[in-house]
């Protein structure tokens, strides 16, 4: 299968925004609007792409993700302890550290994709499953408010259940859409100048909407906070939920409208996005140790510094990716090691 450079470039932009968004949380004073815009769509867009490329996913991939989670949950337990971030957490395998919720959720997404393939993507039972997921996606955070109050020992991030359901619609959309449909939509929107103008107008409207309730939207975008963190009534909750999905879909559309298919640094970042995703928090935890030093910095200086660190993080991790690729497929690595041991025994 020929690689589609456009998808690699989109993944490159998204993984850069993941790194940038995390590092901005350290120096957030004056950066709130940018953080809010990034969190509005970067993970929904990534999960949309996961769905798009899940047409032929296997149980081996699900198992590989779970092994990665166990490995990096253990690794970051040490890192967070050494950098004193671990004081915030009580380490459990049922509570993903920092960014690792994504591995758990992705394993769940893939498991459902395999099930839908087995049943038949367009069979009636598949439609019932999807309807159930969509209902749960909308309602889980409202239900979780009461449940977590009654069970204070359970974390809102338990097994990434809330986030899995909140972001599931984006995975399903990617899973059911095809390239022909996306290409037709792109052609229908006209030339690049019109797309750029339309994108600018839409982003302006989105920033205006977000500025009306920035804290509520930010809490909603995280995906793991129950409804009480961003709404007081059921109507307000449903309104913010609806706006969250619409904003993310608009931003995903803008990405596909504007990103080209020319190879660049973004392509390399996109092709190595898993390495960057898994290891970039090392930079976050180290820089966070000096967070107090940034409080007096000018916001533009802070932003320039964080952008430079984000570029360095992405580029340096790509540079070492060939040496640690074995770590990304622990199941294959274990099987190769086992085969080597068998051959040595036979020799």
UniProtKB/TrEMBL annotation:
Q: Does the keyword Transmembrane helix apply?
A: yes
Q: Where in the cell is it found?
A: Membrane
Alphabetically ordered keywords of this record: Membrane, Transmembrane, Transmembrane helix
Q: Which domain of life is it from?
A: Bacteria
Transmembrane segments annotated in the record for this chain: 12-28, 34-53, 65-85, 97-117, 124-144, 156-177, 189-210, 242-260, 272-291, 303-328
Q: Which residues form the Acyltransferase domain?
A: 9-316
Q: Which InterPro entries match?
A: Acyl_transf_3_dom (IPR002656), Nod_factor_acetyltransferase (IPR052734)
Q: Which PANTHER family match?
A: MEMBRANE-BOUND ACYLTRANSFERASE YKRP-RELATED
* Family indicated by similarity: Belongs to the acyltransferase 3 family.
Please report the name of this protein according to its UniProt entry: Acyltransferase 3 domain-containing protein
Organism from which the protein derives? Listeria newyorkensis
């Amino acid at each position: 299968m020929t690689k589609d450079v456009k998808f690699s470039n989109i993944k490159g932009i998204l993984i850069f925004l993941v790194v940038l968004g995390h590092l901005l949380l350290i120096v957030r004073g004056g950066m709130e609007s940018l953080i809010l815009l990034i969190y509005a769509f970067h993970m929904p867009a990534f999960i949309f792409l996961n769905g798009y490329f899940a047409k032929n996913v296997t149980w081996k991939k699900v198992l590989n993700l779970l092994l990665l989670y166990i490995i990096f949950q253990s690794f970051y337990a040490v890192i967070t302890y050494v950098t004193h971030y671990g004081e915030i957490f009580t380490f459990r395998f049922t509570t993903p550290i920092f960014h690792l919720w994504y591995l758990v959720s992705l394993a769940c997404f893939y498991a459902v994709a395999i099930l839908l393939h087995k049943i038949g993507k367009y069979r009636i039972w598949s439609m019932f499953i999807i309807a159930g997921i969509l209902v749960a996606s909308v309602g889980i955070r409202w239900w979780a408010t009461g449940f977590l109050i009654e069970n204070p020992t359970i974390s809102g991030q338990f097994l990434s259940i809330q986030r899995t359901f909140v972001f599931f619609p984006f995975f399903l959309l990617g899973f059911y859409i095809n390239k022909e449909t996306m290409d037709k939509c792109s052609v229908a929107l006209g030339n690049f100048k019109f797309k750029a103008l339309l994108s600018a107008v839409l982003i302006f409207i989105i920033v205006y909407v977000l500025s009306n309730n920035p804290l509520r939207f930010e809490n909603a975008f995280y995906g793991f906070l129950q409804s009480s963190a961003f709404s007081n009534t059921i109507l307000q909750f449903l309104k913010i939920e609806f706006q969250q999905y619409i904003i993310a879909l608009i931003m995903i559309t803008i990405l596909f409208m504007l990103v080209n298919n020319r190879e660049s640094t973004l392509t390399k970042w996109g092709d190595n996005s898993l390495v960057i995703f898994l290891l970039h928090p090392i930079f976050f935890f180290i820089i966070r140790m000096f967070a107090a030093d940034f409080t007096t910095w000018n916001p533009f200086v802070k932003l320039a510094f964080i952008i430079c660190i984000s570029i360095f993080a992405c580029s340096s991790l790509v540079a070492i990716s060939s040496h640690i690729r074995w770590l990304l497929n622990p199941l294959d690595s274990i099987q190769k090691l086992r085969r080597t041991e068998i051959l040595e025994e036979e020799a």
